[in-house]
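TICKET: design request
STATUS: open
ATTACHED STRUCTURE:
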């Protein structure tokens, strides 16, 4: 009983963290897209036609519906691992399509040619990094075009994200983005937690390029 009383608070803490991560990963990107669309309506509302206003409202409604669906999935504890790799890629494509529509940014996604199932840990890490990088490109980089490419090989996964935004100096990349929920430092930590690494190449006026490499086998060559 004494051991159980010590373990239970830890398990509760872990479960709270898991729920917080699920909410951040699945809901926040949609809310960010809605915020961008509303900001756009406020800034450009006077120059929009009635048809454009209606189309923007439709996009906002669809994003709100998507956030509601994701919230229901989280509530009922439907994890990405239950749906397999194809569904995970569909979730990434849906996220990027929604962000592109709401922000007016062109986002090009090249999915992996190799049909390989990733662990739920790899899925979540890559999804978080993609969501945060896209948010940074739109919010901070003021980009108009973002390219996302995911390559899967037998022993590794490589994610490349590049944008044509205003970029930033190298010291900012090392410090991490202080005003974002999952800044650059946290993105690097996500990659490192799976034995991988994240490299950032950026400069004032030259956009930003992010490369993430994750091993898919352990030191003995066994799948992870």
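STATUS: resolved
RESOLUTION: sequence designed for all positions
ATTACHED SEQUENCE:
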């Amino acid at each position: 009983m004494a051991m159980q009383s010590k373990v239970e608070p830890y398990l509760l803490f872990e479960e709270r963290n898991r729920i917080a991560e699920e909410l951040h990963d699945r809901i926040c990107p949609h809310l960010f897209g809605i915020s961008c669309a509303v900001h756009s309506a406020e800034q450009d509302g006077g120059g929009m036609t009635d048809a454009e206003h209606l189309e923007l409202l439709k996009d906002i409604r669809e994003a709100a519906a998507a956030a509601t669906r994701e919230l229901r999935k989280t509530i009922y504890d439907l994890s990405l691992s239950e749906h397999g790799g194809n569904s995970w890629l569909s979730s990434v494509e849906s996220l990027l399509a929604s962000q592109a529509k709401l922000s007016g940014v062109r986002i090009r996604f090249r999915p992996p040619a190799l049909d390989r199932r990733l662990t739920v840990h790899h899925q979540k890490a890559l999804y978080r990094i993609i969501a945060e990088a896209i948010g940074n490109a739109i919010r901070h980089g003021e980009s108009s075009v973002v390219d996302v490419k995911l390559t899967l090989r037998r022993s590794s996964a490589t994610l490349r994200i590049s944008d044509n935004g205003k970029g930033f100096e190298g010291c900012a990349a090392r410090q991490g983005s202080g005003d974002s929920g999952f800044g650059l430092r946290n993105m690097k930590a996500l990659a490192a937690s799976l034995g991988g690494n994240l490299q950032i190449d950026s400069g004032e006026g030259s956009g930003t390029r992010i490369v993430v490499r994750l091993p898919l086998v352990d030191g003995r060559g066994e799948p992870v």
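CLOSING REMARK: Helices lie at 2-26, 28-44, 50-75, 84-103, 120-139, 170-175, 184-193. The longest helix spans residues 50-75.
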